[in-house]
């Protein structure tokens, strides 16, 4: 027997279809992007400067809209009527943590989203404590975010998003400006989470370490979609899209994720 309603676990976390977008000044940044990310997948979004990565990310929770095509998150179309629900489901960690931390204490910053969504009292406290514990920042709950180091603020920014229990976690350059230990610790955190991840990064070893699959966005279209290791070993593809591995780095020498 067939059913018109798809089984929930079969619905992808993200379905981008024919997405095209021009900025108000007329500059077209996306030319028909198709991308499906299954539930629980970790996918790296690679591509040169100006490829359209951030433009694509900003469509995932409706910050940008009005172009052609569609975006669905767990089956729900991203449009004005359900923006509040979409923003609960899509957790975006921006490149600069200061873009999302604005409260007097870490605890209040992490509580902000869940409180706006209606959580109160002990339930809200539990949610905040859990998110801070997940990123190893429980001891910093009562500190002002602006007294923390960059790496600590990045972790708190991740906690503000985790507290919403998103369907998909989207990170724009998560490893930038982190020291090697913080970079590794963030990788451990991401690996330990049971959540769909889309990670924009120029840090190709990080993509290889964390994401089995990578997508190359170039000139506003998806130029390649496949196993990260295969992509990074394809010298012609790498050159064509201005992707470069660090000197001496051999993608074959790294164990695949999971
Ligand atoms: N507000 C804007 N108005 C007009 N054009 C814009 C605007 N923001 C971005 N663009 C253009 O859209 C294109 C895609 O930009 P986008 O920021 O999405 O690239 P990106 O892949 O995130 O690059 P990077 O790796 O440098 O972060 C670029 O050509 C850029 O100049
Ligand atoms: Mg960008």
TrEMBL record:
GO terms for molecular function: ATP binding; ATP hydrolysis activity; ATPase-coupled transmembrane transporter activity. The keyword Transport applies. Residues 14-244 form the ABC transporter domain. It comes from the Bacteria. It is found in: Cell membrane. Keywords: ATP-binding, Cell membrane, Membrane, Nucleotide-binding, Translocase, Transport. Coiled coil: none annotated. Belongs to the ABC transporter superfamily. Part of an ABC transporter complex. Responsible for energy coupling to the transport system. This is ABC transporter ATP-binding protein.
